[in-house]
Specification:
Strand order of the largest sheet: 14-15-13-16-17-12-18
Structural class: alpha/beta
Largest sheet: 7 strands, parallel
Number of domains: 6
Shape: globular
CATH architecture of the largest domain: 3-Layer(aba) Sandwich
Distance between the termini: 84 Å
Strand content: 15-25%
Radius of gyration: 33 Å
Number of strands: 36
Number of helices: 28
Amino acid sequence: MLNYLSLNTSVAFLNLLAQYNKMNTTYFAEIILPLSLDGTFTYHLSETDLQQIKIGQRVSVPFGTQKLYTGIVHSIHQNKPELYKTKAIHAFLDDEPLVTQTQINFWEWIANYYVCSLGDVFRNAFPSALKLESQTFVRLINPNYETIEELNDYEFLVFEALKLREIISVEEAALIVDDKSAIPTLKLLIDKGIIRLDEKLSEKYTPKIDNYVRLHPDLKGNEQQFMEVLNQLSKAPKQREALLQLITLETQLQDKLLKVADFVKQGATNAVIKSLAEKGAVEIYQNQTSRVENEEKDITEISQLTLKQTEAFNQIKEEFKTKSTVLLHGVTSSGKTEIYLKLIEQVIAKRNKVLYLLPEISVTTQIVHRIKKHFGDKVGVYHSKFNQNERVELWQKTLNGDFDIIIGPRTALFLPFDNLGLVIVDEEHESSYKQMDIKPFFHARDMAMLLGGMMNAKTLLGSATPSAESYYNAKNGKYGYIELNERFGQIKLPEINLIDLKKAQKEKEITEDISHTLRDEIFEQLNHKKQVILFQNRRGYAPIMECKSCGHTPECPNCDVSLTYHKFSNQLKCHYCGYAQAKPLRCVSCGSHELNTKGIGTEQIEQQIQTIFPEAKVRRMDVDAMRGKFAYEKLIEDFENKEIDILIGTQMITKGFDFGNVNFVGVIRADSLLNFPDFRAHEKAFQLLTQVAGRAGRRDEQGKVLIQSFQPEHQILQNVTTYSYAPTMKDILYERKEFLYPPYSRLIKLRFKHKNKERLDKTAEQLVILLKSNFDARCLLGPEAPSIGRINNLYITDVMIKIRPNQSPQKVKDLIRAKINQLHTIAAFRSVRIDVDVDPV
DNA sequence: AGCACGCCGACT
DNA sequence: GTCGGCGTGCTC
């Protein structure tokens, strides 16, 4: 009895213990979701989940009332959350992780540094084709519903459709009825218990499948059978010929596969190939085609470095022994690329990977071509014009370790590579490295150094005009510093001269905006069959349109800017929100027909130049002319083939655009660059003009540059003509120190946006009040509306915070986070959007 | 960031 | 009278 009892209790006890253990061994996963919400989200794991879950794996999870989101497994733990009930993971989307642990660490670092959520980083860093969103489907659950007379026409239509196909998507349902009544109709059907809504995930990425052709496997290495087939074809000469051609092609291609389409291009016809296939001579099969395959076939040796280059190369290597970052300051055409190539070669020889960052536009140009030429299919190129499918393939290939080198703009930083040995940031001064439109507002140059540090890689910053920050860091010994101040082949730097526009106007030495000196020079160049580049940093025809009689200027209805006149499309456009209207025939204010334009854009220069040089082939290069995926490549090709005599461009032409046949560059008006209300204006103007000048005389002879300006005496312009980089920087750094700007402080810009101006200003003022006690007056500026105070119907105001060198940036950021949260506890302030921009440019 | 719930203007 | 506008609150 006692035994029985004790046995019984022990069984009960064991059950209890098992249950207890089970409870205690409940596991949870932290999931990163693509939401702008702080932190990760906790889901509980079943035992089977636990078997297959891996950090970095893609999962789908329910979030909110019904939606499924794609998330990434961040971590696994046993801490049961007390404040809310966890849900289960819906599904594992892949067997293996698509994100590495290093990437997760990197994302967290970025979220912390740039004061945004981990979800913001994930959303931006991960290809969107891999972020599945659930689609809502309608499912029939009561096919036997009988009281049909109670259904309205729309309900009946959906019911009938579902009887044929059990499941339809909400979109299909909307097609059956009309768009507007779809949701109400479905609601009624749900209420009647006839249908149910289901969420389904669909993969957005689709592999590209092509038809390929090869010699039939049965004939391969079987000479006798092959001869038989060939003899059978004696009466079909075309087929015989094609078969023999295929053999030749296959030998040439070695292991590469031959697409049917490519075979057709080589002379075979589809009909012939089909007949051959029917006779068993060839085989047509399907295979996945890579969208990111390299075309490059002949790999060439890297050319020998010159003495100067070798010297620089050795210095870089020496500096890398003690410093993780080196700044290579080399004038345009000094041959920085060759040095990069040599370094890359050495790094990949050690089985390390290289990340090569370029400003956006340069990714499509010659540099990429040159790198591919040396490293062939080991080069992965990322570009923002890639479509979603191409991005996915690049991601997967990178994850597989298929590439030794990844080249790309700032987003390439997020590809899943490992084992980096070297990061190159070319044109490091370029402001396009800073992401400004979507969160995270990161600076790719800075994050490249960080990522390099995480993987023990070295970072090489390259520029002809280094940023003030990098120059400062180099001069202070934080980075290694190597100068390369001689052009390749010892060609002299272009001679830069200034043209005084005031004087030219007074002496009538000018036609519209082209001074006669500039005109004569262009004429001279064209006579020598040279191509000319003209720089005007404004697109459109004229930035302002003005009524001659009343002075009215058409403005954007959504933004606080005047509309730019585009003659080509005969429209007035807003460059901030995209608003466009037809050019009005008369002034909307007074009805006058006399409308004037003020200021000049590329379109107007194009027209003026074409008038002066009616025979010349004039082209324009700005975002308006560069629409479409291959517009840029096409233009480069045309320029190379000398189908363009004069190219007029915005700052686009300063990036990766080097051609041997250009000996002269003209700047139409430098003034707009100099008078920018920004503490970086002088730095940017010097860099831009120097870069523009660098386009001239790159190969055989010394180039010439003419800069037109109303203030030729301006110190920056004077310094540009004499290539006085160091003195310019000295002045700039002196001012920065005086006014406590970077690199002598760190900036955080808080940008407030709201459609109601009063509420906006009140909120910004309130946050300043909350922050006031923690900063001295010099370090907390604003709120102040930026020069364009309203974009897309949202009013904007900025608060600037300067962090002194002795302050902890982390503590300041924590403070900002806390104060914004505090502000948001009050409902009235909550609707104002606050963007935190760390290290604004 | 989505998405649902809830309260006020312009329409059949 | 409704439809639908977007303000507000919540999501593991």
